[in-house]
Amino acid sequence: MARPLRVAALASGRGSNLAALIAARDAGQLPIEFTLVGSDRAQAGALDVATAAGIPTLALNPKDYPSRAAFDAALFDRIAQSGAELLVLAGFMRIVDAAVVSAWEGRAINVHPSLLPKYRGLHTHRRCLEAGDAEHGASVHYVTAELDGGPVVAQARIAVRTGDTEADLAERLLVEEHKLLPAVVGAIAMGRLRWQDGPVFDEAPLTRPLDLGEL
């Protein structure tokens, strides 16, 4: 049996997507080993989730560094030192320096709560409702220097219902995120999804986002 994929994660919030990855691993559905969970917030719930699962944690304060680039370099250096082969941004709420990101090309993914390329950045649920969209969704993409602009590998969709609020959309979409992210990480861990000058899935260049049923 092949050894588990070594994975590190970065998160700024409560860590529900991290918890979904851990649950999938513990259920025997995800052949991964966590090397580190890092955050820019010492009080992030994700660190508690990681500690409870026996995963090493790291919290660095951006204010302790002279620049954003210096902070990012220090954080990603620690990720590299952990031996991670894949970095998962699971609710990490910072824009990462382009030079730092470039060193992780093809080895870092992010989950974002919109159907990219729609609604990069913040307040995606609000923007979906304001636009009158009939559907909303989540995307997993490879991380590049462009904010939420890397190649999208998979998406999950939900219908927007009459009377939906931002909170309604967020709650329903999170259920789908918790399926989508483990599925993508699993595809990478099993060698079905990889990077070769761009995303390759089942040995063919990926030309459109996959849906959950294809992973």
Automatic annotation (TrEMBL):
Residues covered by the Formyl transferase N-terminal domain: 6-185
Residues of the signal peptide: none
Reactions catalysed, as given in the entry: N(1)-(5-phospho-beta-D-ribosyl)glycinamide + (6R)-10-formyltetrahydrofolate = N(2)-formyl-N(1)-(5-phospho-beta-D-ribosyl)glycinamide + (6S)-5,6,7,8-tetrahydrofolate + H(+)
Binding positions ((6R)-10-formyltetrahydrofolate): 68, 93-96, 110
Gene3D superfamilies the record matches: Formyl transferase, N-terminal domain
Enzyme Commission identifier(s): 2.1.2.2
Residues where N(1)-(5-phospho-beta-D-ribosyl)glycinamide binds: 15-17
CDD domains referenced in this protein's UniProt entry, alphabetically: FMT_core_GART
Family: Belongs to the GART family.
NCBIfam families (alphabetical): PurN
Protein name, as recorded: Phosphoribosylglycinamide formyltransferase
Species this protein is from: Luteibacter flocculans
